[in-house]
């Protein structure tokens, strides 16, 4: 769990399992679009991947136009934030009078709203989900709509693939934060560059894999190798495995060729 997640969770009401709420957001709501300006909007690797499906850009083009590259506090992992427009309202670059121009591939934080979601490992090492409610003063979406609990809302907003992918990102960050050997030193510039490539530039990471022959040195089925090289979502999933292996020396998902399990 990031520091910003901890702060947000401490400032907002946590939902009990099965607790229900009413909400709707559409052009008929008087405040429509008011929540799409002056945002501190983190983009997870899967967020960036999905947004690029809509924009049709390379990862390099997308980052140059729409995102600011930062480092996750205490961990140093690359992290993108959406770059707001330089207008008086600092609107999201995808906000339009009619709504979100990338609605089908909108970021996970936008999908989850008005809920927030945070995860952290319990004593058994399992990721535990916590859900909280963000009731902003301007929002009138609570006055209408359908009753949901958190699970129904997540399903309604198509969050399953986002949550699955984002959980890997946050689990990697938490594992790195707890990894003693890495905690004693900062990641090198080379490691940072490769982490950025694996997480936020799968198109260029695929080129690196093709040129380096890295996949041939790993115990992977031909089918998975082919998928990694031709599907960016599969390449991102591999990227998490590879970062766990290269930064911490082990992962349950991947091993070098010839190494016994």
How large is the radius of gyration?
19 Å
- Mean pLDDT over the residues: 90
Strand content: 15-25%
Number of domains: 2
Largest sheet: 3 strands, antiparallel
**What is the count of helical runs?**
11
SSE topology string: HEEEHHEEEEHEEEHHHHHHH
**Unreliable residue runs:** none
Number of strands: 10
Strand order, sheet with most strands: 1-9-8
How far apart lie the N and C ends? Answer: 30 Å
Q: Helix content range of the residues, please?
A: 40-55%
Shape: globular
Helix and strand content put the structural class at alpha+beta
Topology (elements, then pairings):
Blueprint: H1 3-11, E1 13-14, E2 20-23, E3 42-43, H2 45-55, H3 59-66, E4 67-71, E5 78-82, E6 95-96, E7 99-100, H4 108-112, E8 115-121, E9 127-133, E10 146-149, H5 150-156, H6 160-178, H7 180-183, H8 189-200, H9 202-212, H10 222-230, H11 232-248
Antiparallel strand pairs: 1-9, 2-10, 3-5, 4-5, 6-7, 8-9
Helix pairs in contact: 6-11, 8-11, 9-11, 10-11
What would the keywords be for this entry?
alpha+beta; 2 domains; 3-stranded antiparallel beta sheet; 43% helix; 10 strands; globular; 15% strand; 11 helices; 261 residues
Give a brief outline of the structure.
The protein has helices at residues 3-11, 45-55, 59-66, 108-112, 150-156, 160-178, 180-183, 189-200, 202-212, 222-230, 232-248; strands at residues 13-14, 20-23, 42-43, 67-71, 78-82, 95-96, 99-100, 115-121, 127-133, 146-149. It is an alpha+beta fold and 261 residues long.
